[in-house]
Amino acid sequence: MGKKKPHIANEPEPSAANIGMRLLIIGLPTLALIAIIGFMKLKSDEHMPASVLAAVKAPTSSTPTVPEDTAKAPIAIPDTTIDLTILPVIPDTLPAAPPDSVGVDERSPLTAGHEDGHLAGAYDRGAGNEYGISYDDTNTYPTPAEQHAYSDGYREGYAVGYRESKL
User: Fold this and answer.
1) Predicted confidence (pLDDT) at residue 50 exceeds the cutoff of 70
2) Rounded distance, CA 65 to CA 41, Å?
3) 44: which of 10, 61, 120, 148 lies 20 to 30 Å off by Cα?
4) 114-137: b or e for each residue (b if 16 or more CB lie within 10 Å)?
5) CA angle, corner 69, sides to 68 and 73, nearest 5?
6) Is residue 59's pLDDT more than 60?
7) To the nearest 5 percent, what fractions of the chain are helix, strand and coil?
8) Residues 84-104: pLDDT tens digits?
9) How far apart are CA 30 and CA 26, in angstroms?
10) Cα distance between residue 128 and residue 61, in whole Å
11) What is the pLDDT of residues 133-167, one digit of tens each?
């Protein structure tokens, strides 16, 4: 005959109430989840277009079937009553920038020099470089007066930027 398993005092014996409680704890949420998924599936079918529903529910055969309820489905009808000459002409691409506008600084020479010099001076001081390591006041302004104004602004801006920046 079979051997009986010795009873261990610390191990609880499975009882009908214990098994029933486990089934209740696991089974009830599982049933609720299945019911929710089924309800959501049914509700999602109501929002599908009639033609898609008919194709899903139609029997598979070699002859195409046209469902009766597609006549009730909303169909997009293009508006062709507007004369095409009235509509604005929209170009397919944007025009390229004129060559003389690329790289042109819109700031005044003095302001541009001061801002550029301030940035260079602050960078040199912040990076721990010595004074004047990245000093470069070259510019592309067309007249000598504008070039001189840029250089003056750069020199002042560089000194202020180097002096005011933190290490």
Assistant:
1) no
2) 25
3) 61
4) bebbbebbbebbeeeeeeeeeeeb
5) 140
6) no
7) 50, 0, 50
8) 777 777 777 766 766 666 667
9) 6
10) 81
11) 889 998 888 899 999 999 999 999 999 999 888 76
Cα gap 92→105, rounded to integer Å: 29
> What is the percent of the chain where pLDDT is above 90?
29
* Residues 102, 105: Cα–Cα separation, whole Å: 9
In tens, the pLDDT along 2-42 reads 566 555 556 566 677 788 888 889 999 999 999 999 998 88
Comparing CA positions, the residue from 75, 34, 31, 72 lying closest to residue 42 is: 34
Q: Taking a C-beta distance cutoff of 8 angstroms, is the pair 112, 105 a contact?
A: yes
The answer to whether 165 and 122 are in contact (CB under 8 A) is: yes
pLDDT at residue 13 in the model: 63
Asked if 37 contacts 61 with a C-beta cutoff of 8 angstroms, the reply is no
* pLDDT of res. 133: 87
- Return the axis-axis angle of helices 109-126 and 144-164, rounded to nearest 10°: 30
